[in-house]
Amino acid sequence: NAGVTQTPKFQVLKTGQSMTLQCAQDMNHEYMSWYRQDPGMGLRLIHYSVGAGITDQGEVPNGYNVSRSTTEDFPLRLLSAAPSQTSVYFCASSYSRDSGNTIYFGEGSWLTVV
Amino acid sequence: GQQVMQIPQYQHVQEGEDFTTYCNSSTTLSNIQWYKQRPGGHPVFLIQLVKSGEVKKQKRLTFQFGEAKKNSSLHITATQTTDVGTYFCAGRVRGSRLTFGEGTQLTVNP
């Protein structure tokens, strides 16, 4: 059971480039989300999805797009990378958005924008 | 909006000393979760507290949820080097999304 799989693990981008961080889960979870983690700021929610075809903005959505065409996949797109988007990105999933559901995190993607 | 504050931001202890991190919310929470993130790793779920005044233990870790459901704590007795990492609380207000605290980074000197 792979859980939540993220790729790539490391990426260096030039300012203005675009890229997609891939995320897949094999637990048939309805709820998937993307967080970014910056020193001293904890985990901040970028976008989330409560099911296939449904996405919504989190706390820090600007500069990112998501889509959820299948239950398993939830890619995060950076449209035009900026140095402020240098961060560690975590994809996460849970059975549903409701209280009581454990969140399972991927191993993270370290992104540097130069 | 909902805020979850966590203190301290950093804690350095000698192996064998106790450690406590505190989580405070500006609003009443429906539940609170705790996660541990090892250096270079990803957050891993530890426990969830739901009831007012609830106390749960996992070996040397004791988790408490305040009577007013606005605060929580994680206490580690006799720390070991394997306890190194960042501990996050995450609270949820009913009908809203989970909000993470900033985390407490624990280092343990052997």
Helix content of chain B: under 10%
Shape of chain B: globular
Strand content of chain B: over 45%
As an assembly, this protein is heterodimer
Question: Describe the biggest sheet of chain B?
Answer: 6 strands, mixed
Return the average pLDDT of chain A rounded to an integer: 94
Write a structural description.
The complex is a heterodimer of chains A (114) and B (110). Helix content of chain A is 0%, strand content 49%. Chain A is mostly beta strands and 114 residues long. In chain A, the strands form two sheets. In chain A, strands 2, 4, 5, 6, 9, 10 and 11 form a seven-stranded mixed β-sheet that branches. In chain A, strands 1-3-8-7 form a four-stranded antiparallel β-sheet, with no helix packed on it. In chain A, strand 4 and strand 5 (43-51) form a beta hairpin. Chain B is 0% helix and 55% strand. In chain B, strands 2, 4, 5, 9, 10 and 11 form a six-stranded mixed β-sheet that branches. In chain B, strands 1-3-8-7-6 form a five-stranded antiparallel β-sheet, with no helix packed on it. The model of chain B has no long low-confidence stretch (mean pLDDT 94).
Would you summarize the structure shown here?
The complex is a heterodimer of chains A (114) and B (110). Chain A is mainly beta and 114 residues long.
Blueprint (SSEs and pairs):
The complex is a heterodimer of chains A (114) and B (110).
Chain A: E1 4-7, E2 10-13, E3 19-25, E4 31-37, E5 43-51, E6 54-57, E7 64-66, E8 76-78, E9 87-94, E10 104-105, E11 109-113
Parallel strand pairs in A: 2-11
Antiparallel strand pairs in A: 1-3, 3-8, 4-5, 4-9, 5-6, 7-8, 9-10, 9-11
Chain B: E1 4-7, E2 10-14, E3 19-25, E4 31-37, E5 44-49, E6 55-58, E7 61-65, E8 71-76, E9 85-92, E10 98-100, E11 104-109
Parallel strand pairs in B: 2-11
Antiparallel strand pairs in B: 1-3, 3-8, 4-5, 4-9, 6-7, 7-8, 9-10, 9-11
